[in-house]
Amino acid sequence: MEFVLNSFLYLHIAAGALTLLLGPVAIYTNESNLRIHRPAGRVFFYAMLVVCASATFGFFRRPDFVFYQFLLGISVFVWAGVMRGFRALQFMKNGPVLPLDYVYTALLGFAGLAMVLRAGWMFARGVDPALPILFGVFGMASLWDASRNLRYFKNAGDVQRMEWLALHVSSMIGAFIASTTAFAVNAAPFLPWYLQWFGPTVLLVPVQVYFGRRLRARVSV
């Protein structure tokens, strides 16, 4: 059993390292060099799936442990975002909305609601504010993402090609932010908890906004 646990841990670390290495490559070549962007993005996508799957394994080891409950919610949040980013490329090619899209969106909404309710429960009992805040913030983000997915799916036929591309880029950068956050939490314990968890978001969201605006600006061209 110890061998299995260690194997999942090493797999998680290796996949996470790949996302940290290839994320910036895929981001900054998304317009300038598709020969590099596509293989880098493909490996990043599969590495993120491995990261989410291996992180979820931690929850099943200790489902009663609050932090592992939180990591499960984060894993669903990131997995759904990566899937949306992948599917956006297929929607660009007039691919149909599939039951799979509603499955990961429903799981995302359920996870978000569970995290928000968990945050309220912990606040009501006077738990140290760090965990309730994290549950609440990421739970609300999950609910917002789920509602955004449904809006896109409902009007998929009216969404222009460059808007799908912007959604793809935004979703994958969001996944990279999550990977960077995980690295900060594990590698910088000397920082206050709010800088570990929200610092990468503050630093990288402007990059996400920049590329999103550039791509959406092409819609009117």
Short recap of the structure:
With 221 residues, the protein is mainly α. Helix content is 84%, strand content 0%.
Task: Provide tags for this entry.
221 residues; mainly alpha; 7 helices
List the helices and strands and how they pair.
Elements: H1 2-28, H2 34-61, H3 66-92, H4 99-124, H5 130-154, H6 161-187, H7 193-217
Helix pairs in contact: 1-2, 1-6, 2-3, 3-4, 3-5, 3-6, 4-5, 6-7
Shape: globular
Q: Report the radius of gyration as a whole number of Å.
A: 18 Å
**N-to-C series of helices and strands:** HHHHHHH
Continuous helix count: 7
Distance between the termini: 58 Å
Structure summary, number of beta strands: 0
Low-confidence runs of at least 5 consecutive residues: none
Bin the strand percentage. Answer: under 5%
Q: Which percent range fits the helix content?
A: over 70%
What does this entry look like structurally?
It is built from 7 helices and no strands. Helices cover 84% and strands 0% of the residues. By secondary structure, the protein is mostly helical.
